[in-house]
Backbone:
């Protein structure tokens, strides 16, 4: 009836014409070619910066490392075709012997440390993400409330995330020094960075301190999307605080929580700088990335194989996580509050 | 749209594969022939200057060579990080590093990989005035590959207010500590007994080597390749350190000590005996040291009267990828001159490499420990000389550390160490 009404009709008509055919039929071929040309430089850049190194590393992982020519005493070029020997070296811990065979890698070689390092990495992931999610949820709930000085609390919570990890590691190294402040306050005399469980605890404490703000931020974003009316309605219906938390907050914040957990899991699975600087990777804190960097000094192609294995394992874990959360997210949205 | 996307992806991936297959074909052998007579400004890469010896070198050289100035790049003060830095730049064939400081244990690896050029022919260096031990340490396969710059031998630092004379055997040292030191940990004003460098890094290989060699054991046989560390003598040597932690005459904090931490502990009066390099003298005599004037230096003790220090030291190598090798060679000759070696000793208490300086009357009067230092260097035992040193030191560090922590007994640690050294050197 009105102008607006006529515009509406026109729009609806156009939609119903296009709605019967394919989804993209409203874009004409000229536009799609233009779109392609516009993003081509970006794709090319990504291929060079991301695609090429990955492909090259995978290619290198099938080559030999330089060997020593005992006649001249000099290393040869290496890079001969090696099949999957580099992979069996890491996965089955088989080291080459002088007469050409293989044997189980002895204690003290890098080859014997692969599964140990991977286990340590997964251990750190599970423990730190569990701690960070719990504490981060607490922080997010606090930051979500309106109270005097909230801005100050928010900034204070975010500061650990803002400091570069290398600086954080050095700071915590000073704190964890046997003569340092932590021992002074606790009245103990732990050698934090030179025994097994103290060193692992040190890494976990430092990592949780540093990245809980990140999870808290992401959860806060999810929390702020829940309107107060829902809580009001629940209160009227007689729900107590715990029921409100488990029946309203948790399901509605799950998408944000899923993103936070997946991000953090991926981050910790490739953790390098914190253990490398804090403990030097000794005392059972060698992660997969530290092992790769150590191997680089002895042979690039073997390191490429190790790095590819690590990449595949991390990918599988991340893929599993995404499938797990995806199912939950879709379920939450389907029955969610409209 | 979909088929075009797939086609694009295929093109990009195959381009990447072609580049990967063709890339890396350029050889570095041409680099050795260029820059042979070229002169120009050079970059000298070295570890952190703990005692202020480098400004003198830069000033003297730059004053005499205004067109071939040297820029000194200081790396971290941790040996492992210095090695990583050099390896990355050499693997990338970086022409920006002209002269590099090569620790004695890296010499074989760098030479075998062709990263530093042999000092023969037009790059020959006169070594008549140098200590033979340092010349051997800077050679590979009989050829000199780097110019000795500073030598190093382990020495025992002891508190003169707590021990009248320095002990010559391990048992004497433990007996000296009784009644004057705390056991097991560093607490309060009473010092602990003894500490070296026992964190899991290259320094642990040095300390383990000193203990094992002093007892008559050896990591590798005379051919430099066969692992021989699994022996009764090596076990006696390693047990000196293992028992230290068990019985308490080495504090457990020492498991995290690198050179700096052990030096700080001794400087703060927390240790009665310390094993460290000669550079520590300058630091202990500086302001802020609580033991200034209260410490002495002696040769390392051993099980029956004489210890074996590990030969350390640094040489300067010319990078194969340098553009100004002639200038670099002159710089090498410059740092071996009397003036620079004297400055290294007086300012940095680094051990000089020229034999004459050890009998110079003026210097021996000022540095009374010079004869001790000379003996330490001349009788020092080098660590295994092999191009596979990274793998060998990893084998020694890991197993020695496990033994010191008490995770495995000494015999098992040595058996594993021998197997791991064998595996590391099998990479030929």
Residues:
């Amino acid at each position: 009836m009105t102008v607006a009404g006529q515009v509406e009709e026109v729009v609806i008509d156009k939609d119903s014409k296009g709605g019967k055919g394919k989804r993209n039929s409203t874009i004409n071929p000229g536009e799609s070619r233009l779109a392609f040309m516009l993003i081509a430089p970006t794709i090319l850049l990504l291929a060079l910066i991301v695609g090429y190194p990955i492909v090259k590393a995978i290619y290198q992982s099938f080559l030999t490392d330089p060997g020593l020519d005992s006649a001249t005493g000099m290393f040869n070029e290496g890079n001969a075709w090696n099949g999957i020997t580099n992979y069996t070296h890491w996965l089955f811990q088989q080291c080459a012997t002088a007469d050409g065979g293989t044997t189980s890698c002895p204690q003290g070689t890098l080859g014997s440390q692969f599964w140990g390092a991977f286990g340590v990495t997964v251990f750190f992931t599970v423990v730190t993400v569990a701690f960070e999610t719990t504490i981060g949820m607490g922080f997010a709930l606090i930051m979500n409330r309106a109270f005097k000085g909230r801005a100050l609390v928010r900034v204070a919570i975010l500061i650990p995330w803002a400091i570069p990890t290398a600086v954080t590691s050095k700071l915590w190294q000073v704190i964890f020094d046997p003569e340092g402040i932590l021992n002074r306050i606790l009245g103990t005399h732990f050698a934090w960075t030179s025994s097994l469980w103290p060193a692992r605890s040190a890494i976990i404490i430092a990592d949780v301190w540093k990245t809980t703000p990140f999870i808290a931020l992401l959860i806060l974003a999810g929390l702020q999307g829940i309107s107060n009316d829902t809580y009001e309605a629940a209160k009227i219906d007689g729900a107590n605080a715990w029921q409100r938390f488990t029946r309203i907050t948790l399901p509605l914040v799950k998408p944000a929580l899923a993103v936070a957990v997946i991000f953090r899991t991926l981050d910790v699975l490739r953790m390098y700088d914190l253990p490398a600087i804090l403990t030097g990777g000794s005392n059972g804190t060698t992660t997969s990335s530290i092992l790769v960097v150590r191997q680089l000094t002895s042979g690039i192609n073997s390191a490429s194989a190790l790095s590819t294995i690590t990449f595949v394992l991390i990918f599988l874990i991340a893929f599993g996580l995404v499938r797990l959360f995806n199912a939950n997210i879709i379920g939450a949205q389907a029955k969610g509050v409209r | 749209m979909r088929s075009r996307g797939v086609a694009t992806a295929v093109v990009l991936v195959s381009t990447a594969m072609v580049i990967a297959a063709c890339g890396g074909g350029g050889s570095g052998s041409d680099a050795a022939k260029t820059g042979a007579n070229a002169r120009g400004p050079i970059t000298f890469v070295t570890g952190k200057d703990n005692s202020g010896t480098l400004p003198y070198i830069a000033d003297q050289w730059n004053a005499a060579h205004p067109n071939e100035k040297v820029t000194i790049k200081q790396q971290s003060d941790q040996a492992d990080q210095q090695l990583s830095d050099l390896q990355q730049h050499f693997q990338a064939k970086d022409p920006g590093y002209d002269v590099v400081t090569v620790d004695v244990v890296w010499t074989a690896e760098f030479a075998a990989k062709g990263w530093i050029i042999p000092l023969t022919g037009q790059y020959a260096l006169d070594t008549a005035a140098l200590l033979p031990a340092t010349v051997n340490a800077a050679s590979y396969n009989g050829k000199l590959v780097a110019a000795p710059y500073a030598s190093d031998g382990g020495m025992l630092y002891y508190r003169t207010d707590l021990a009248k004379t320095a002990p010559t055997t391990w048992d004497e040292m433990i007996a000296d500590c009784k009644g004057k030191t705390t056991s097991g940990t560093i607490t309060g004003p009473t010092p602990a007994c003894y500490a070296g460098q026992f964190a899991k890094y290259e320094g642990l290989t040095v300390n383990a080597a000193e203990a094992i060699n002093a007892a008559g054991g050896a990591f590798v046989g005379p051919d430099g390749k066969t692992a021989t560390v699994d022996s009764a003598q090596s076990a006696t040597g390693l047990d000196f350190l293992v028992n230290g932690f068990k019985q308490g005459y080495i504090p457990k904090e020492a498991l995290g000590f690198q050179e700096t931490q052990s030096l700080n502990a001794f400087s703060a009066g927390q240790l009665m005996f310390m094993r460290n390099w000669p550079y520590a003298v300058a630091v202990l005599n500086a302001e802020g040291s609580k033991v200034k004037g209260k410490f002495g230096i002696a040769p390392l003790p051993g099980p029956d009267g004489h210890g074996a220090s590990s030969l350390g030291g640094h040489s300067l190598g010319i990078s194969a990828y340098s553009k100004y090798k002639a200038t670099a060679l002159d710089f090498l000759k410059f740092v071996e001159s009397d003036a620079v070696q004297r400055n290294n000793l007086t300012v940095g208490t680094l051990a000089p490499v020229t034999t004459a300086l050890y009998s110079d009357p003026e210097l021996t009067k000022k540095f009374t420990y010079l004869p001790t230092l000379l003996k330490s260097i001349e009788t020092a035992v080098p660590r295994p000389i092999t191009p596979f040193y990274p793998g060998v030191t990893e084998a020694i560090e890991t197993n020695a550390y496990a033994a010191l922590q008490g995770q495995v007994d000494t015999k098992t640690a040595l058996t594993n160490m021998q197997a791991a050294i064998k595996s590391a050197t099998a990479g030929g």
In short: The two ends of chain A are 31 Å apart (CA to CA). Chain A is about 70% helix and 5% strand. Residues 254 and 329 of chain A are 7 Å apart (CA to CA). Chain A has a mean pLDDT of 84.
